[in-house]
Amino acid sequence: MKKTVAIDGPAGAGKSTIAKLVAEKLGYIYIDTGAMYRAVAWKVLDAGVEPTDDNIVDVAKKIDVRLRFVGDAVRVFAGDTDVTEAIRTPEVTALVSQVAQLGPVREKMVELQRSMAKDGGVVMDGRDIASNVLPNADVKIFLTASIEERALRRWKEMKAKGYEEPMDKLTAEIEARDKADSTRTISPLVRVPEAALLDTTGLTIDEVVQKVMGLCG
Ligand code: DC
Fold first, then answer.
1. What is the pLDDT of residues 36-72, one digit of tens each?
2. Residue with the nearest Cα to atom 18 of ligand 1?
3. Ligand 1 contact via 8 beta carbon (within 6 Å)
4. Which of 122, 86, 135, 156 is nearest to 4 (CA)?
5. Ligand 1: which of 8, 20, 96 to mutate, judged by most atoms within 8 Å of the beta carbon?
6. Which residue ranges form the domains of the chain, and what is each CATH number?
7. What is the pLDDT of residues 135-184, one digit of tens each?
8. CB of 38 closer than 6 A to ligand 1?
9. How far apart are alpha carbons 141 and 145 in whole angstroms?
10. 147 Cβ contact partners less than 8 Å away, ≥ 6 residues apart
C-alpha cells in the first residue's frame, strides 16, 4: 500500500533534503509545502506591490502554484514561470513568514496540498503537515536539530548559491522564523504527540535517511 509520510520541523532541520531522498527510495512523490508559500512571497516581490496582508492575500488568490516533474526533479512553478531557484533568495526568505501566517493564503495552499496527497505515495514536508494538512498520515515524523547546526547548514546552503551571510545573522533569522512559525495563531509549528521525534544534530544525511526509512516500515 502506498503510504503518506508527513515530516514537520523547524527551518534548517534538514526536512527537504531528507524528504526528497526518502521519497526517491520509496518511489513516492516529494511535496515541499514551504516552496508553495515561498512562491507566493516571490510573486508579491515580483509584482512590486507593497507587502501588506491585503496585497499578499490578493496575490495568493490569483497565483497558480504547481510542483511539476521536469525529468527526475520536482520544479516549482508560479503560472508558467519556473521559480525553483528564485524562491530561495534572502528577500523571499525574509517575507515568507508573513505570507505563511495569513489564513486565506494557508487555506488555498492546504487545499492544494491535500489534493496532491489524496492517492498516497507522497512524502510531504512542512510545519503543519501532521497537525493539519494530513492528520491521518500513515507516518508522522518531527525532525529537528540544534540551532547552531541549523544555522551552519543554512550558511553552507547559501554559500553554495553564492550568498555569503554572517553566521550570527543567519542564527538570528532562524530564531526569528522559529518564533514566528511556532507562535502564529493559525496552524503553528507543533509536534503532534504521535510523531516520532528525530534530532538530526551530529547525524549524517545517510544516517537520518536510514532512520526515517525505518520509521516508514
Ligand atoms: O521550509 P521553508 O523554509 O521553505 O518554509 C518557508 C516558510 O513557510 C517558513 O517560514 C514556514 C512556512 N511554512 C508553513 O507555515 N507551513 C508549511 N507547511 C510549510 C512552510
1. 999 999 999 999 999 999 999 999 999 999 999 888 7
2. 126
3. no
4. 122
5. 96
6. 4-211 (3.40.50.300)
7. 999 999 999 999 999 999 989 988 998 888 899 999 999 999 899 889 99
8. yes
9. 13
10. 171, 174, 175, 178
